[in-house]
Amino acid sequence: MACMFTTVARFADPLEAHIACGRLRAEGIDAHVADAHMGLANWEWRLAVGGTRVLVDESDADFAHKVIRDLDAGAYALDSDASSGATLQAPDRESWSSRLAWIALMLFNVPLPWRRRPPRDDEAVREV
């Protein structure tokens, strides 16, 4: 029997479509992203062609719609760490040399190397 795909969601941003596709795959649904490359290469055409589509098999469409609704409602968002009250986020490793390199690139179109500030003990990445 041939697999017939149907559109379960459309996104203006192709990255959001890939996030939704990843969530659907994590739930065991065979999902695919369509028109993502066109949306990245020709960003001004994104809305004209209807955005980036997420496709699933017709038999999985109802469950996929529920997962997309839950994703939009924030059901899969990370909660804050109950022990410290902190949320999971990447540490700020911007240094004066990275700022200087960015300014040189913007003003003079000259890329410069820079060094990242090493993470402090309290910024160490926690393993989950």
What does this structure look like?
The protein is α+β, with helices and mostly antiparallel strands and 128 residues long. It has a domain at 5-73: 2-Layer Sandwich (Alpha-Beta Plaits). The protein contains four helices and three strands; from the N terminus they run E-H-E-H-E-H-H. The protein has a three-stranded antiparallel sheet. The longest helix is centred in the first third of the chain and has 13 residues, at 14-26. The protein is elongated. The termini are far apart. 15% of the residues are buried. The mean pLDDT is 80.
Taking the sheet with the most strands, its summary is:
3 strands, antiparallel
Any idea of the CATH class of the domain at 5-73? Alpha Beta
Tally of individual helices: 4
Give helix % range. Answer: 25-40%
Distance between the termini: 41 Å
Q: The CATH topology of the domain at 5-73 is what? A: Alpha-Beta Plaits
Give a count of the beta strands, DSSP E runs of length 2 or more.
Answer: 3
Label the overall shape: elongated
Low-confidence sequence ranges: none
Quote the average pLDDT.
Answer: 80
CA-atom Rg in angstroms = 20 Å
CATH architecture of the domain at 5-73: 2-Layer Sandwich
Tell me the strand order in the biggest sheet.
1-3-2
H/E topology pattern: EHEHEHH
